[in-house]
Specification:
about 400 residues; mainly alpha; 18 helices; about 70% helix; about 0% strand
Length: about 400
């Protein structure tokens, strides 16, 4: 016991300098990020957290969680049923307490990611976390909305990158990826990635974990589970249409370029899945060359591009990609700068800052407005395809060099 207390006391100063800057920025910004929040009296409009809470209330009262909506914004609950089950504790205690808890957990998730991607421990982690909350729109609005994006990212990263030295791992690797995928389907792409980097146990455990949590939902909420999966198969997402400029996926870009019809959406989804598949192969290639942080960020980017709906705050993976190419990197110079350009564009979030949106105003965009609204998905896709071309050239060159080096048999 005395040894444990000594270790805790020794770790307290470093823990404080890591947590305090990020928490201070998070709580100062929390009531300012989303409209109708107030600094005094302190009140934050965490609308997505409110959706989760209302859905849980409806669930325990026997109502359909997919009919839940917020009274002012008419926002719907769109996650798989297991998400509502896991969020049941939101009913315990005042809402303001959960706003505080959610912000602390979200901040802790960001700090966990930064530590695992080798941002130096101590003040550096705290300052980088605070800077990301302040300057990167997906991180900032994830906190402001009361969203789960940084938490899910932390679950994935925790299964793929090493724990802190000296810590004992109790949860099997892969279980957290499966949990993240059960809450929001897009992390399933990391299961494919785990197979490609020959982490078969991680991939299998992720599948088992996903099936376990999804199975619990089928047992406890069979009607809602059937409704969710049936609606997903029909392409119904219970939220705003893909043309909304806050949707920075390939589907969003294509519907804004062409038309918001079924043919365009299906074509965009097919292209998105192909791009995601290419990105996962390329990421595995870079993983084997030591660029593990970059590889994870690239797969995260791919999940956002392939999803039918990727709101700007879903792109928290840009933080990982930006840090990967800002520190030492063996990537070609053009890949470094293209990655930085994409991440900085995501951080600035100019489409929502300078363009009219909502009410299908996007259908009347000029060519210039379409370029601004669609630059994020375009840059991301160009980065992936350019990296794929680079990998193919490198692989073919290596094979050619090996064939030249082989001795010619003599009769």
């Amino acid at each position: 016991m005395s040894e444990l207390l000594h270790r805790v006391r020794a770790a307290l100063p470093r823990t404080a300098v890591e947590w305090v800057p990020a928490l201070v920025v998070s709580f100062v910004l929390l009531p300012l990020v989303i409209v109708n929040g107030h600094m005094w009296p302190y009140s934050a409009n965490t609308v997505d957290l409110n959706v989760y809470r209302l859905a849980v209330q409806d669930m325990v009262n026997g109502h359909d969680i997919y009919l839940t909506s917020t009274p002012v914004d008419n926002l719907k609950f769109i996650y798989p049923p297991i998400a509502a089950i896991l969020m049941t504790p939101l009913l315990l205690g005042p809402y303001i307490v959960w706003q505080i808890i959610w912000t602390v957990v979200g901040t802790g998730a960001l700090l966990s990611v930064l530590r695992r991607i080798k941002v130096p421990r101590g003040l550096a982690v705290g300052v980088v976390a605070a800077a990301l909350v302040l300057a990167m729109e997906p991180i900032r609005t994830t906190m402001g909305y009361g969203q789960v994006n940084t938490m899910l990212m932390a679950l994935v990263v925790a299964d793929l990158l090493p724990d802190d030295p000296g810590k004992t791992r109790r949860i099997p690797r892969g279980a957290l990826i499966g949990l993240a995928a059960a809450i929001k389907l897009t992390p399933l792409l990391f299961v494919v990635f785990a197979f490609l980097i020959v982490k078969h146990r991680v991939a299998i455990m992720a599948i088992v974990s996903f099936a376990f949590f999804t199975g619990i939902a089928w047992i406890l909420l069979p009607k809602e589970s059937l409704e969710y999966w049936r609606s997903l198969g029909k392409g119904e997402v219970n939220t705003a249409g893909p043309v909304y400029v806050g949707n920075q996926s390939i589907s969003g870009a294509m519907t804004r370029w062409f038309a918001e019809d079924r043919k365009t959406v299906i074509t965009a989804l097919a292209i998105g899945f192909v791009i995601a598949g290419i990105a996962t192969l390329v990421a595995a290639w870079w993983w084997r060359r030591g660029e593990k942080v970059f590889a994870i960020g690239l797969v995260g980017l791919a999940t956002c591009l392939a999803s039918p709906l990727s709101w700007t705050h879903h792109h928290v993976w840009a933080a990982i990609l930006l840090i990967a190419v800002t520190t030492s990197s063996t990537l070609p110079w053009w890949a470094v700068w293209l990655s930085r350009a994409w991440a900085i564009w995501i951080a600035l979030c100019l489409p929502l800052a300078v363009l009219p949106y909502g009410g299908h105003k996007e259908l009347a965009y000029t060519v210039g407005q379409k370029l601004v609204g669609n630059l994020g998905p375009t840059l991301g896709s160009v980065l992936i395809l350019a990296l794929a071309g680079h990998a193919v050239v490198r692989i073919l060159s290596a094979r050619s060099a090996r064939s030249v080096a082989m001795p010619v048999p003599v009769d």
